[in-house]
Specification:
Oligomer: homodimer
Largest interface: A-B, 20 and 20 residues
Number of strands of chain A: 9
CATH class of chain A: Alpha Beta
Helix content of chain A: 40-55%
Number of helices of chain A: 9
Distance between the termini of chain A: 35 Å
Strand content of chain A: 15-25%
Order of helices and strands of chain A: EEEEHEHHEHEHEHEHHH
Shape of chain A: globular
Strand order of the largest sheet of chain A: 1-2-3-5-4-6-7-8-9
CATH superfamily of chain A: Alpha/Beta hydrolase fold, catalytic domain
Structural class of chain A: alpha/beta
CATH topology of chain A: Rossmann fold
Largest sheet of chain A: 9 strands, mixed
């Protein structure tokens, strides 16, 4: 893991890095160690990148708000990464579909599925590297890990959570294609799943079917009115509470997070 | 409105009453006026009553936890009220259906629909009487009003919210029959709607269709795994926050509620 820059502001330290040519960014509370600290993996949406507004806002909630660490990667074909002709086509096609109120095409579903196949081992490698960094820091490995990503973030996150046992909880949503069913069935951790009731990009029946397919015994669906881009702010707050509830489950985790267990309990 | 008993404990005053032979109970913070105070109408489930555990717990959250007032009534044929042969049949049939894992029968749907037709004007009369009581107390009328009731509570609450403009927000759920569609379309206030994903009493498709039918521009569905009786505690906390967000919207309401506006904002 090669760190390329570091800056701190408002009690948060941000470090840009690359790992095997995959660009990422790591946030943690300034001056506090990574070891034992809850870590949230933040996935971005199609056409987005690791420092887009949606990612940065969620990182702020996790790190400034809850004392967690957070990490985001540029998905294959996104952000600073090399872009193929297919990647260019994907970015423009997503925008066109949303503007025209049309559902995800079979081509887009295949393309994002291929992105996920590349991205899953990249995330696993990042977790390995962060675990080594944590142990090198103060002898303690990674804390509990959660995943938070919608749309393309979930296309990647669902097979990631199915494959990666270190992920203990996830916030998914805004996706639902038959090609995702098999991986969803292999997810077993607590899940919060978001649906936009009037989502034209991701037809409702597909999203509900994907929620149904999730193997987790503990899963909750939240559906709000509006389209793909209309997830209300209240769902961000709610997801933050949900992740905190599951990542701060033990007294050790709460201490590592730098907030009192009592304060955390009151915030639930 | 004829009050029959009064007791106070833990900062909450409970007053049992009857209004035109309808038994009810009113809770408010001890020593604080009703006028201007957010008021939550609590509906109980089929076979339940106004002082069942579910109602009392929610009253505690609203009154002790948030400084609101709360009121519950025995639904027709329930609690202290005269019970017809049909009422007896309903209570036992609900229990049998749940035990056998069977869906609500057409007879039960018709029966609860008839209960709702009787209950709606009873709730309206209670609101009128409480409004008069509030004004007589300190010259200020009712504060903002919310409704919180699942299952039979929603069978009554949905047509009540459709008819009664004083209701500003509602928590509904665990119901979904075609006979409810017309009233649901006439509901326009913000709604939180609960579904149990594996509810055998209320098949999922019907519950989702009822959510879809709700006329409210602002509505959110929360679905959790499990059966009709398995709504998780987290949904109670979440509903409490949702009602508070909508009932404490103005500085006046927050002051009347007896909690600081800042504290309320932080608790969102």
């Amino acid at each position: 893991m090669h760190f390329t820059s570091e800056s701190s502001a408002d009690g948060v330290t941000q470090r840009d890095f690359t790992l095997d040519d995959v660009p990422g960014v790591l946030w943690q509370p300034e001056g506090l160690p990574l070891g034992g600290r809850p870590l949230v993996l933040l996935g971005h949406g199609g056409g987005g990148h690791k420092l887009g507004l949606g990612v940065v806002e969620r990182a702020g909630r996790c790190v400034r708000g809850r004392g967690f660490a957070a990490v985001a990667l540029d998905a294959p074909g996104h952000g600073e990464r090399k872009r193929s002709a297919q990647d260019e086509r994907f970015a423009s096609e997503i925008g066109q579909l949303i503007a025209a109120g049309r559902p995800i095409s079979a081509w887009v579903a295949r393309h994002t599925s291929a992105l996920a196949e590349r991205a899953v081992p990249e995330w696993v490698a990042v977790l390995d590297a962060l675990g080594e960094r944590a142990e090198a820091g103060d002898g303690e490995g990674l804390g509990p890990v959660g995943f938070w990503g919608l749309s393309l973030g979930s296309v990647i996150g669902i097979p990631l959570a199915a494959a990666e046992p270190r992920i203990a909880v996830a916030v998914f949503g805004l996706t639902g294609h038959g090609s995702q069913t098999e991986a969803a069935e292999r997810v077993g951790v607590p899940v919060r799943f978001l649906v936009q009731w009037d989502d034209q990009l991701v037809p409702r029946a597909g999203a509900l079917a994907l929620f149904d397919a999730l193997g987790s015994r503990q899963k909750t669906l939240h559906a709000n009115t509006g389209g793909h881009l209309d997830v209300p702010e209240t769902e961000l707050e709610s997801a933050e509470r949900f992740l905190t509830h599951h990542l701060s489950a033990g007294p050790g985790a709460a201490e590592a997070a730098g907030v009192g267990a009592d304060a955390d309990a009151k915030r639930q």
